Amino acid sequence: xxxxxxxxSRDLDEIFLLQAHRDNPGFRARxxxxxxxxxxxxxxxxxxxxxxxxxxxxxxxxxxxxxxxxPGGGFYPSTLTKDEWERFLDExxxxxxxxxxxxxxxxxxxxxxxxxxxxxYFADPLEAAAAKLARAGALTRDASLRTYLTTLAExxxxxxxxxxxxxxxxxxxxxxxxFGPYEVYEDELFNYKAAFESFVTLVDPVESAxxxxxxxxxxxxxxxxxxxxxHKNLSRGTxxxxxxxxxxxxxxxxxxxxxxxxxxxxxxxxxxxxKGSKKVLLxxxxxxxxxxxxxxxxxxxxxxxxxxxxxxxxxxxxxxFHELSHGLGPGHIEVDGQRGEVREFLREHYSTMEEAKAxxxxxxxxxxxxxxxxxxxxxxxxxYATYVAGLVRSARFGGGSAHGRGAAVQFRLLREADAIEIxxxxxxxxxxxxxxxxxxxxxxxxxxxxxxxxxxxxxxALLATHASPSPEMQRLIDGLGGVPIDIRPIFxxxxxxxxxxxxRD
Length: 505
Ligand SMILES: [Zn+2]
Fold this sequence. Notes:
The chain has 22 helices and eleven strands. By secondary structure, it is of the alpha+beta class. Zinc ion binds at residues 322, 326, 355, 358.
């Protein structure tokens, strides 16, 4: 069954490649014509980036003679401009639903734009994947997984993922599969379009059960958000399962560039209001990143006396609470009599704001747990130090990443609040203990309110000045040469080995 799930994931991988850029198969074919020495490295790097653009460096092409990446990736015609889009929508308001849909590809037909459902645009690979999922469903004795796989196969064929999302929320076995079009980060034009991805994971039941207890505290966390009650989202479903898993295969959006350490899905607000959302933590990925990346970063960016505070447990908790906090705060809002989701109001700035919010509100909630006695007081300085070092780790992802921009925003705002100090002689960072909690509260409040009130212009203005690393942060990032930016997964279960995937230095 795992073999089938991995094979179906590989079908999604080819789809995502087209969503990243419509010319990607052609680009890859050209790399295959390079002389052998250059070809191997080029193809390996192409596989990491899913294309010819540096995801960590503002989408700069990594080969010469390539045009800039279209901001909308492969989801829209590459020559489409925002002006043309807005003009067309003004003239054809009836076409809006199909064009802004999460699950359509936008194509140009003469003067016309239209939205083609994924199920039609990608009919062949989706049918191939659906058949494998249906076969896998027939093999499992896990009833919840069988229902999910059957429903999911249907979703791939009819382009409606709501039923699959609902069945995904009910998974309760030892195998967690996440499969479909989810995140909108790849579409930097509008954040409208969902990219295909897959995570195949195995659950740790003991650790997951322990974390389940935290979910009973979610309503208290929502009430404790530092915003007026009218903006709190107290009606959301609270059935928010948490799974701690080990990743055995990923594909598509999940595998491109920076590796995901945890996720919170589904994104469909209707499903979230009905069933809540589920957090999946990828423990083997979190551990690998802590050891190979965060620890060496902290050794260079934190002051000497802060370094003993760094802890893998704090890193894990910050990741967990980041995911929990995606499910807290404003969801559906009303602005000037118009009702919609926050992402519809903040548009291309939504992803950055949502990632920054999840980080800072996650920390805010952990501090609240300490205040309540639900988390040990001794963990406090570990959280401060690990969070601050973690901002530098995320900011390194760069301007092409919502997480990278979100970390730069938090850092600048916390500096303005005097919550992070810079040691005058070493240039290294130290949380300012007497200002830290107040600073976190203020930054959380500011980001949550921009979301609650759907303030597009103010958000754009904030990001214009804050979404790139400050000079002091940039100096620290520049001093991280030799520390890996990320890990590259190799999945033996899927027949991969270092020999077939490794880039030479
Ligand atoms: Zn996130």
